[in-house]
Amino acid sequence: xxxxxxxxxxxxxxxxxxxxxxxxxxxxxxxxxxxxxxxxxxxxxxxxxxxxxxxxxxxxxxxxxxxxxxxxxxxxxxxxxxxxxxxxxxxxxxxxxxxxxxxxxxxxxxxxxxxxxxxxxxxxxxxxxxxxxxxxxxxxxxxxxxxxxxxxxxxxxxxxxxxxxxxxxxxxxxxxxxxxxxxxxxxxxxxxxxxxxxxxxxxxxxxxxxxxxxxxxxxxxxxxxxxxxxxxxxxxxxxxxxxxxxxxxxxxxxxxxxxxxxxxxxxxxxxxxxxxxxxxxxxxxxxxxxxxxxxxxxxxxxxxxxxxxxxxxxxxxxxxxxxxxxxxxxxxxxxxxxxxxxxxxxxxxxxxxxxxxxxxxxxxxxxxxxxxxxxxxxxxxxxxxxxxxxxxxxxxxxxxxxxxxxxxxxxxxxxxxxxxxxxxxxxxxxxxxxxxxxxxxxxxxxxxxxxxxxxxxxxxxxxxxxxxxxxxxxxxxxxxxxxxxxxxxxxxxxxxxxxxxxxxxxxxxxxxxxxxxxxxxxxxxxxxxxxxxxxxxxxxxxxxxxxxxxxxxxxxxxxxxxxxxxxxxxxxxxxxxxxxxx
Length: 582
What we know:
Layout: H1 2-33, E1 37-44, H2 51-65, E2 71-78, H3 87-101, E3 108-112, H4 114-127, E4 133-137, H5 139-142, E5 151-155, H6 160-170, E6 176-181, H7 185-198, E7 206-211, H8 215-222, E8 229-233, H9 247-257, E9 262-263, E10 276-280, H10 282-297, E11 308-309, E12 312-317, H11 318-323, E13 336-338, H12 344-373, H13 375-380, H14 382-410, H15 421-438, E14 442-449, H16 452-459, H17 461-477, E15 485-490, E16 493-499, H18 503-520, E17 535-542, H19 550-566, E18 571-574, E19 579-581
Helix pairs in contact: 2-10, 12-14, 16-17, 17-18
């Protein structure tokens, strides 16, 4: 009897499983018949592993996978056409794709880069007729062919002149511009685009084109670039010896070989050695293609989805900005800064907070334990109760002191013992509001150690740190009033905020600081102006009002400092006033 029950139960379980499998199969058939499953074929022009293509593909997958209520199956083919751009290879590729996808219903094709589009125009009608095609193509090359009715997409061009103008602005002493490009058809195409742009600047700068050279010869030439040079990396997918290259890796080698800032055109080069620029973004291009693809998969025809231009973003490598002494304030607004070095406090602040919480929790736990242990005795001995209450107060006071000390440390620069920039910004905001209400003058002194990078290069970073400490101490000696604030603004730059102070008073203090630093007599043999360490000053005074904000005062002082440095250094410049030699 028990065996019969077991067999009946087993039969019921198997029947239920088979019914579920049949239901799932029926659901799949129903999904196919009603078009719920959409199939997208991505045809890449390169072989696997190219950084731009990888980021582009990842952006498409991420966007399409996030769509609720739509099941999308993505097929990806790395065609290798870019490296084998011949009719024979295209015929072979056509045969392979026909074999693989002859029985698969494709709803949308993404053709990435011009060689794939050429292939689709030659063979698409034969195999993928009437299937919508989204392209990513260079506009100038694509205009040479006719846009078919089943095509739309993104024109992914490059902003060569924008990046050139920005590089010249950031490096005003530039005399030579080295242009590096490779030997492939794509490399030559982008070099020709650059030549058209650069010819308008030929009278002002010396352009040297390093085109289609073997990699070893290129690196040898870059090791001997002259002073006041910037390097413009176009594209190098193949060198003069015919070797296939990954451009991102080439940038790294170029950066290590040359002693000059490197600029590029694609965000995939960022982090490999370029400073930055107005960069074409593979991620943004992938997002746009995915958005257009979703419209088509939801029923729009390619003609209803207009062609768009690829997106660009001003992006920079923080490490390269530091290397070449480029201030973030000189970059375009809304610039994206990558690879920023995290400060000690930013990296470990949560560890400190967690530590304090643990200490507090342990302290509270200990107090609770002690309180419970003495509950009975507290009823009998009031004096013991008072003693415990005093201990609680003492521990609370200690904790408050620790918190106060931690807050003070978070406001002080660890090297110079001056206030840090975060604290300076908070005080400036408060003083600006107060002076705006009372119509009082607010002055700001901004100063910079002259040729400090050369000082570090000559004497070493330990000597540089000692120099910063001595200069900071001299500055701190001139802070006479409790309301005056001296802070390290960044690197070798310092600021003094002087509430209720006219321009003349700020000028006197700046002059005293300059003299105090000179009296330190810190040797600086690498300085181009004198044999000891000196400072350049920018002084600005504003009566705050509702039409301005505190950034105007900083900008004014920074402009004055820039004029001092641009006029020979070791001097004081008052915003809107005259320069005074140190």
